[in-house]
Structure prediction request, 91 residues.
Amino acid sequence: MQEYLSIELYNGLAEERRSYGDQEINSSVVFVDAELVRADHSILNAEVGVKFTGQTRDEVTGQKSDVAEVWHLERKLDQANAPWLIVGIEA
Prediction:
């Protein structure tokens, strides 16, 4: 996962995951839709916002949960073949 995330976001998500301790997460995606909600650029960066909506299911309990998040991605334009990195997630 680390190759797709900014360092700051990776560290924050890793800390959140550690807070679960040994608790297993057994969920699957029932469906997901994606919509480009923002696109912008500057001299150094391209930026997009992608809104994901959908549903997940806990494989143990069968309980379904709605998902609505906006993921913010950036790509450095001054570096050849720079990857898109997820720099933020809004729930």
Remarks:
- The helical segments are 7-18.
